[in-house]
Amino acid sequence: MKTVPAEPKGVDSGPHFMDGDQAIAEGALAAGCRFFAGYPITPSTETAERFAERAPEVGALFIQMEDELASIAALIGAAWGGRKAMTVTCGPGFSLMVENIGLAAMTETPLVIANVQRGGPSTGLPTLTAQQDMMQARYGSHGDYAIIALSPDSPQECFDITVEAFNLSEFYRVPVIILTDETVGHMHEKVVIPPAEQIQVVPRNNYSGPKEDFRPYKFDCQGGHPMARAGDGYNFHITGLTHDERGYPVMTAEQSKIVVTHLMEKIHGNADKIIRLDEDQIDGADVVVVSYGITSRIAIKAIQDARKEGIKVGSLRLITIWPFCEKRIRELAPKIKAFVVPEINYGQMVLEVERCAGGKCETISVNHCGGAVHDPEVILAAIRKANQ
C-alpha cells in the first residue's frame, strides 16, 4: 500500500487523557476523514461529539442524519464524492445499516463504521457492555461478500486501529468495521497521538488518466484500484446490480461468478497481509486463550494466575476479527490440548475457532451474555479444565 504522512491539521499530536470513543474520532481525523454522518446512540455518541467539535478546525463536515439508514447512505455518496467517510453506531443502529453495507461491498465503496457494542438483542442493555455483534458484522447483509473488521482493546488502540481501518478501506475499497465495546469506548486512559509525519495514511487513489479509459472496477481479486469523483466528467455507473468494469448491469450467472469471486478473494486472498494478531508465550503452550477487545484484558489476570500454578498457557489476541485467522488456528490446534475462548456473548467467535481446530484439540467456550466483563476466576477455571 502506498502511504503518505498525515495532514498536520488533522492531527492533535501529544499525550491526551480520553476515552476510546473520542480516540476513534481523533484517529479518523488523523487518517484524513473529512465527512462524518451519524445519529446519536448510546454508547457511541462521544465519537460523534468529538468529531463534530473538531470538524471546523480541520475543514471537515459533520452532519447529524435523521437515522442510521440515512447515515450510511450519506457515507456512500460522500465516498464517491471524493471524501474519506465514517460513521459510528451500536447494535440497533448497525442493524439498520446492514442493507447499505451490502451496497457498499458490491460497489466497492471505502468507508469506516465503528460499532461500539452493547447488550442486545433489540434495545437490550443500552449503557452496558457486550461483544454480541461479531457475526452480524461479517454476515449481516445478504449475499456473498467480504469485509474487514478490527477489534481494539484500549483507547490507544482505538486511535491506532482507526487509522489502520481507513488505510485498509482505501486500499481494498471495502467497508471496514471497528468492533469495539462499551467498556473500551468509555474507558479513559492515556492516548499518545504521534506527530503527523509519523502517521502513515493511504491517500484516496483518484484516477487521472483519459476519461474514456476509466473503469471503476477491475475484477482481479486485488486492491489498490482507483476511483473517480462523481461530477468530474467520468462516464461510469454505480449500482448494486451485478455489473461490468464500468459499473453497468450485466445480470448473468457468469458475471455474478466474476464479481462475487472478486469481492470475496480481494479480502480472503490477501488475508496474510490484512490479519493482525497479538501472541504471548504461544510456543510450548498446552492451552491457548483466544480473546479480543476488552475480554483480552480481563483474560490477562486469569492467564497470569494459571502460569503461577505451572500451567503452560499462551494468549492469542485477535486484533483482526474478519478475515478470521484460520491458518494460525489450524497451525496451533495439533500442538495444544485446548483453546479457551472467553467472549461477552453466548458463543460466537468460538464457533470459528472450533471450526478451524477441526477436532484436533478441545475448544472451550467461556461465554457471558453481556452487561459486564468476565470475572477472571471464571476464565481461570476454564484454563484449569483445559489443562486436565
Tell me the layout of helices and strands.
Blueprint lengths: L3 E2 L8 E6 H11 L2 E6 L6 H14 L2 E4 L3 H13 L3 E6 L1 H16 L4 E9 L5 E5 L4 H6 L8 E3 L4 H18 L2 E7 H5 L1 E6 L6 E2 L51 H16 L2 H4 L2 E4 L6 E5 L1 H16 L4 E6 L1 E3 L3 H7 L5 E6 L5 H9 L4 E6 L8 H12 L1
Parallel strand pairs: 3-4, 3-5, 5-6, 6-9, 8-9, 13-14, 13-16, 16-17
Antiparallel strand pairs: 1-11, 2-10, 6-7, 8-15, 12-14
Helix pairs in contact: 1-2, 1-6, 3-4, 10-13, 11-12
Index terms:
single chain, 388 residues, alpha/beta, Rossmann fold, 2 domains, eight-stranded mixed β-sheet, five-stranded mixed β-sheet, 13 helices, 38% helix
Structural notes for this entry:
The longest helix is centred in the middle third of the chain and has 18 residues, at 155-172. The chain has 2 domains: 4-201, Rossmann fold (3-Layer(aba) Sandwich); 279-387, 3-Layer(aba) Sandwich (Rossmann fold), CATH 3.40.50.920. It is an alpha/beta fold and 388 residues long. 38% of the residues lie in helices and 22% in strands. It contains 13 helices and 17 strands. The strands form 4 sheets. Strands 3, 4, 5, 6, 7, 8, 9 and 15 form an 8-stranded mixed β-sheet that branches. The chain has helices spanning 20-30, 45-58, 68-80, 91-106, 134-139, 155-172, 182-186, 253-268, 271-274, 293-308, 326-332, 349-357, 376-387, and strands spanning 4-5, 14-19, 33-38, 61-64, 84-89, 111-119, 125-129, 148-150, 175-181, 188-193, 200-201, 277-280, 287-291, 313-318, 320-322, 338-343, 362-367.
